[in-house]
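hey so u asked for the seq, here:
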Amino acid sequence: MLVLLAILLAFLAQNLLTPLPYDFAAVCVALTLLAFFSFSQTQNEFVIRREGMLNALLMLIGIVIAWQLLPAPLAALCIFALAGVVFTHAVNSTAVDAPPAPTRAPSQRFQVAVFALILIASTVLYVYDNEHIQPGLHGDEAESGVEARNINAGKYNTLIGVGWYDQALPSFLAQAIGLRAFGNTVGGLRTTSALVSLLTLPLVFVLARKLFNTRVAFITLALMAFAHWFIAYARIGINYNQTTLLEVLAVLTFWEGWQSERKRWFVVSGLATGAGLYLYFASRLVPILLVAFAGYVLLMQWTADRRRQTANNELPSAVRHTPSLRVQQLALWCVTLLLVFAPMALFFLDHAKEFNSRASFVFLFSDSQIYTRDQKLQMYTGTTDISTALAVQVNRYATLLNVGGDRSGQYGNQLALVEYYTATFFVLGLLYALLHAQQPRFMLLLMWVALTLLIGGVLTIESPFSPRIIGLMPVPFMLASVALDRTWSVLSAPHDAHPSRLRRFAARLVLPLTAAILLGTIIYSNYDSYFDHYLHSLDGWAQREPATAVAKYAAQLGPDQTMYMLSAPELFIWHGTIRFIAPNLRGFDMPDPESDLPVRDPNTKWSAFVMLPNHTQWLGKLRQLYPHGTLREWRRPWGELWFVIYEAPAEDVLARR
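ran it, structure tokens below
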């Protein structure tokens, strides 16, 4: 029962961070069970003990004090820590890798059916009407699509170079193939991303099974496949999730090579790591992660060897500082990585500015061409003091997964990136991993979390910015799965040779039913978080939803019709969203309508003038210049003005030229 107590404490802590409507009931249940089970339970029966009662009373007083007097984040941290200790103590006697009894193991066909069902359901969630869900085409998506079209059109005579935002041209290759395979549209662009996400899921499944067991693998697969964070990026037509795909492949094959000592796996890992360096900038974290992990494990092995040989009174010279086989394997991995990346590396030797431009711009503590370091610190953290700025950044990313606050335009969902119930078990799994960090598999996951959040998050601007930590995505779900798996192991394990009917009933029916209800609740909560909460909370940012609506309008214009944009600096005619959806548009910007009007271009006839709400002051002048024009308005569902377009007939334009 201690494991249930730990879970209830964890839910109490999560409720302090993101309260649910019934959090008061959860608090009452948690405290009641705490007061009862902590002092009354022995291994097989309930016996009230004096020392147990005292411990329970002190624990209860501590929780109440933390809950009532401390700030909610600090109280949650204290209660989460207590939950982690109780959870680890409760499950410590059951091996996480212990497979189910052979007679109860699901058949191979059943496992394949479940796996296929999850992938089919995921395909529907990622692909269905993805041209309109989400409704706005983000500028980064559009720019990726434009570069993909450039590749398909043969604009580049080589892919060894950089394109939009100094990203390597091969990073747009998948979208180029997708536009040809699925259609040269927004839907085709996003379907490519969905396919990459679907290919990632089996690799995550295999990685979880290699690190732990099949049950953890299936739980991880289900949690990640239906996570609103994963759904969101599967429906965004950009190369972010390509980083996740190759990062999981690199880590999986590196771990397999480390465990099996077979060199071919290090070659595959080197290939995946090197290929990832051609993609989104977040992929540059992968070699850092794998080198740090290998260095840690080698150091631990060297330390253990030295202690053992010292205990056996061997000479220090007899200590092997590094196992030669491991060094050879790492060397093979490094050589493979460098050979794969060599063509682009040679390019960057002659174009160092392009290699470092984006990193220099987003690094919080560096000067860039636009801002000095102090300007960056003040703008993005509210202070120029480095220690205070770091504290702000750490707090933002420490709470991103469980509390939320993503500020990215790509997925600025204010909800927690990890759904409520999954987040609770994620913290339990994280604390369990911290207490078992001496095991390489847990250290790998901990390093994955720490390095990604530090390098891709804390040290960068615009925080918290979820695309830069996209490679981290499988880890929270894997750690949550470990916690769920350990819970299942404890609750289903027989505690005596002749369990009662009630215990057999609970093990055979109640436990699976509870797990099914929990999984169903998690799936529904994720679905609601994306398809209801997020999609209905989009604020109509000028360069996303309005730009998309303007672009769709522009795509219907004929070659003899011209669009003018009177909305600088919020929106320009050359914005990527407009260029992707309306590639044949004849259009111009009017940054200074006072002097740019009337239209003087000799080839302009029928014209459309686009104005965002804060630029509608030019309507009076347009009506005066083009009196026979037509005003069209676009409004949000609740009536707020989105933008207006004033259509001027060719006769009026010619008369005023």
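The chain has 26 helices and five strands. The first helix runs from residue 2 to 17.
lmk if thats what u needed
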